Amino acid sequence: MTNTSYEEFMGIIKSYPNDLIFYHYCSPETFLSICSGKKLRFSDLNSMNDHLENIWGYNIWIEVANDLLQAEEIHKDFIDRIDSVLHMASFTFLKLACCLSKDGDVLSQWRAYASDATGYSIGFSANDLLKMPVRILKVIYDKEEQKKIVKAFVKAIFEVENSKATHDSQDFEDICTEFAVNLSCFKNSAFNEELETRLIHIAVLDTSDENNPKYMFGGGTANGKECENYDIKYRMNGSVPTAYIDIDFFYDSNPIKEVILGPKNQAHPMGVILALNALGVKDVKVKQSEASYR
């Protein structure tokens, strides 16, 4: 169907190859904070560097919906039902993301996300990240592939709905909500060098106090057990309050397998190893970037 499986698009991943590593580029200060606190920060997707975050995926949906309507493959009432859920989900559910890459040594990444190459790239075991209360989404950059995925999804759910003697509105809403969340794995092809994989946690709008709604931790499992509750916090992104959450990643074993020093990082690899050992982050391979940049 496409280069991306249904499971990958929906974040249904049971396991990865044992040697697969995802990398997080960061400043020296953030590197120390991650290794000492053993937490990863998840921030509101709307605060990311791409101003089309969330908008891009929805626009792909609109393009596909219009194509299906023009081809008379799907009727308008069904498209409107999906669109209604997408709009509801955009307010009810807050996508908090931690952005990683499949490549830990890319010059453009060093310059953009690691304090102009003075920082670090932290390599996490992909399988260990599956223990966190998150979904893992492979970012898709090819627009035609994005459209094929959306079209296949819409036609599949249309066929399922038409085959039912009775319609379960909750089932329909649930699957369309998952679809809405996972549209965030679509990005402009201009970012394809990033080879991004996203860890996503979904915060849920709590309206139990109608006059004072707020987002709450969305729950989940951590290392196979019911997850503790985390507080949604806020920081200022310029003048804009931005939601974030810090989630534990260190359970029964160290998920950090490799650390790469940026091209302008002046630390000695052995010095970094000694610091990591002191922090309880052991058996980590540390090396210098191969990129030449001053």
From TrEMBL:
InterPro entries found in the cross-reference section: DUF2971
Protein name according to UniProt: DUF2971 domain-containing protein
